[in-house]
Task: inverse folding
């Protein structure tokens, strides 16, 4: 990290203190360079956030470590918007290939930010779109991506109201990088956050896991295998509206388990809420084809990326109603209870295996790499 | 899912656990050879279902783990060359060399690529005639046929820009080395099913005979392992030192002849260094002289690199069944998947990685370090 110049009028002791104050709490000596795993959604990503970004930018909204920040507007009693809560989130999309079975980078960029807002309980109000284009990108590809963004936004019913365009030299980008940011309004009475999980709560997943990650992997160069799998990228704001209508304040946590998969998302929740989580392997919905691909490649589906899926942690008494509401929505038709929140082993996720043994489910460490044999 | 669920039934698993409990009249120490088996044991929780009388120790069958440090340093030196595309199985990239690993070499500009098959590396060499494509050929007998096929097919096509960095190892000489140690603790072996799918199991019969030890060729699913354990315990209780085949759906006594022929055409048996264990005579494959031009060590002149292991890492003891990962003073503290001292902490077949990710370390108290 480059450091700003020190004030020349400082005394020597003050220089030392200033240097110390600027010292990065991230272990730079361990990682002098950024690795792919720093963006993988696992332990190194978490370390980067907790030890570099949060200390640098420290504020209460950021420290919630949620999918988006929650901002309260209208602070004076005579303001008609008083107490309105906005969710604000941003995400960047760097996927290869740009077009994949079931979607493309454009649809993903709209759905991803809509879903980050939805995980805060918000209905989306507006999106921004910033495109970083690589010199030489076929204009027809850009048009396909833009059309796809338009269709996705129209389907959600959220306008893309502002944007930015930059072009980088050939070889300095990967075709297209997209950043979207979004704001949304959180209905009154909704109280969500990873630290709100309580012992006794029920863990629900909205459908079959690991579909997106395997669909993308199946078309990547060097790892191509034949499958008819398509990514499940989808906006989740209607599913969230339905389940919040059924569960209200009994819904404690929503989380879309994207990079790092189900395992990493649940580990983060367990750590933030200081609770244990117990899963039942046999009850986690998993499509046959996804399971087959994971078996062949030696990947654990618990760590494979998802899109269009969410985790719901809800008070036990409201779980049936929330599950029924999810089943009534096409995006939650395969929703299933996969575990419970417990007071024991705080911070740790444990799974009961199919043969009845138990083991810990750790956070993703590094990237998942296919095995040798 | 067909061919998977039938080997993961809870009722059948309980039945085998009961059989093992009823059969074992004393303590037995069994070694599963393959790291894939170690991971299934811990991931499915078999280690916790077994009676206390049965101790499982984890064998050397993790190709990434036994690849010598020098060899990793050689791969790193080759990967740093601007004309080179270094291709490797994904598992190898995280393994620490003396100063760095291949993922970090990639981060600093080296062209390091994951391939799923060595034939994909040959394809890359065809597509990039201006580059040197090197495949990091590690593994046991299981991966040898595909690696031999890559060299054979590059030779047939006359590809001048393809070579392999070869670090192949063989299971039976390692078992012989383990059993020849005067203080061996191992009472029985679960042999590695996939190695035997290629090689058959006839070559294990002299080992069983000479050392009077049962060897059960075992698969990789939870029920395979439970049955393998049961059959080994039964053989021990009945005082039988034979080779048995649990993994009949994949393994025959003579193995895959076509694969063996190809391997013999390209490779020959040689002495090999095993990381953490040392030199084992006649325990690996290297390229035959007629294929020497595909030897990346010669092409890039990296054969003389030497390296020094971390003195803290006890992976050699772990892979010989003399210690468990939680016996290591560095386990989970100085050595983690993010900052590994040894390869078993980062390989998907490494015993330390299994203990770390599946949390065995969180329940067990650290023991006294095993004697060196």
Result:
């Amino acid at each position: 990290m480059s450091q700003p110049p020190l004030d020349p009028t400082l005394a020597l002791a003050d220089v030392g203190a200033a240097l110390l104050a600027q010292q990065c709490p991230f272990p730079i000596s361990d990682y002098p360079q950024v690795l792919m795993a720093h963006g993988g959604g696992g332990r190194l990503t978490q370390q980067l956030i907790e030890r570099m970004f949060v200390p640098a930018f420290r504020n209460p909204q950021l420290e919630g470590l949620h999918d988006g920040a929650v901002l309260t507007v209208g602070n004076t009693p005579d303001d008609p918007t008083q107490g309105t809560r906005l969710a604000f989130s941003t995400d960047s999309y760097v996927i290869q290939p740009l077009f994949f079975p079931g979607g493309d980078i454009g649809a993903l960029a709209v759905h991803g930010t809509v879903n980050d807002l939805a995980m805060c309980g918000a209905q989306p109000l507006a999106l921004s779109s910033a495109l970083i284009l690589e010199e030489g990108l076929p204009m027809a590809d850009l048009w396909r991506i833009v059309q796809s963004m338009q269709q996705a936004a129209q389907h959600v019913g959220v306008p893309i109201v502002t944007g930015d365009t930059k072009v980088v030299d050939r070889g300095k980008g990967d075709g297209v990088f997209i950043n979207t940011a979004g704001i949304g309004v959180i209905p009154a009475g909704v109280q969500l956050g990873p630290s709100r999980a309580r012992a006794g709560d029920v863990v629900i997943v909205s459908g079959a896991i690991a579909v997106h990650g395997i669909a993308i992997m199946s078309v990547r160069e060097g790892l191509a295998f034949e499958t008819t799998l398509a990514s499940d990228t989808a906006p989740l704001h209607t599913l969230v509206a339905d389940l919040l209508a059924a569960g209200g304040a009994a819904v404690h946590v929503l989380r879309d388990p994207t990079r790092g998969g189900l395992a990493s998302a649940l580990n983060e929740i367990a750590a933030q809420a200081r609770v244990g989580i117990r899963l039942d392997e046999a009850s986690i919905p998993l499509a046959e084809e996804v399971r087959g691909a994971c078996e062949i490649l030696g990947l654990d589906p618990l760590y494979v990326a998802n899109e269009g899926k969410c985790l719901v942690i809800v008070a036990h008494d409201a779980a049936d109603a929330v599950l029924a509401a999810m089943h009534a929505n096409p995006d939650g038709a395969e929703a299933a209870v996969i575990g419970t929140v417990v007071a024991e082993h705080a911070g740790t996720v444990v799974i009961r295996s199919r043969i009845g043994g138990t083991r810990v489910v750790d956070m993703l460490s590094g990237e998942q790499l296919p095995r040798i044999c | 899912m067909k061919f998977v669920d039938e080997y993961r039934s809870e009722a059948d698993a309980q039945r085998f656990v009961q059989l093992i409990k009823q059969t074992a009249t004393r303590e037995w120490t069994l070694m599963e050879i393959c790291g894939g088996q170690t991971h299934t044991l811990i991931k499915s929780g078999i280690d916790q279902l077994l009676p206390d009388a049965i101790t499982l120790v984890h064998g050397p069958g993790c190709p990434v783990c036994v690849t010598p440090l020098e060899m990793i340093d050689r791969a790193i030196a080759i990967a740093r060359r601007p004309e080179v595309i270094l291709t490797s199985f994904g598992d190898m990239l995280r393994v620490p060399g003396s100063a760095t690993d291949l993922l970090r070499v990639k981060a600093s500009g080296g062209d390091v690529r994951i391939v799923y098959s060595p034939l994909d590396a040959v394809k890359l060499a065809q597509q990039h005639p201006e580059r040197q494509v090197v495949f990091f050929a590690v593994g046991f007998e299981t991966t040898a046929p595909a690696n031999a096929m890559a060299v054979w097919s590059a030779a047939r096509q006359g590809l001048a820009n393809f070579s392999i960095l070869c670090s192949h190892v063989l299971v039976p000489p390692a078992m012989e080395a383990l059993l020849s140690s005067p203080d061996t603790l191992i009472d029985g072996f679960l042999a590695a099913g996939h190695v035997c799918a290629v090689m058959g199991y006839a070559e294990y019969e002299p080992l069983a005979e000479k050392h009077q030890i049962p060897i059960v060729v075992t698969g990789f699913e939870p029920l395979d392992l439970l049955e393998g354990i049961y059959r080994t315990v039964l053989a021990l209780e009945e005082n039988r030192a034979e080779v048995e085949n649990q993994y009949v759906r994949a393994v025959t006594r003579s193995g895959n002849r076509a694969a063996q022929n190809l391997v013999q055409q390209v490779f020959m048996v040689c002495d090999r260094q095993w990381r953490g264990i040392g030199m084992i005579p006649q325990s690996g494959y290297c390229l035959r002289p007629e294929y020497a031009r595909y030897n990346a060590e010669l092409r890039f002149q990296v054969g003389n690199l030497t390296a020094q292991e971390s003195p803290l890492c006890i992976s050699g003891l772990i892979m010989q069944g003399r210690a468990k990962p939680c016996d290591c003073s560095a386990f989970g503290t100085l050595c983690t998947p993010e900052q590994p001292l040894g390869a078993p902490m980062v390989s998907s077949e490494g015993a330390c990685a299994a203990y770390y990710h599946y949390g065995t370390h969180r329940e067990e108290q650290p023991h006294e370090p095993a004697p060196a």
In short: The first helix of chain A runs from residue 12 to 22. The two ends of chain A are 40 Å apart (CA to CA).
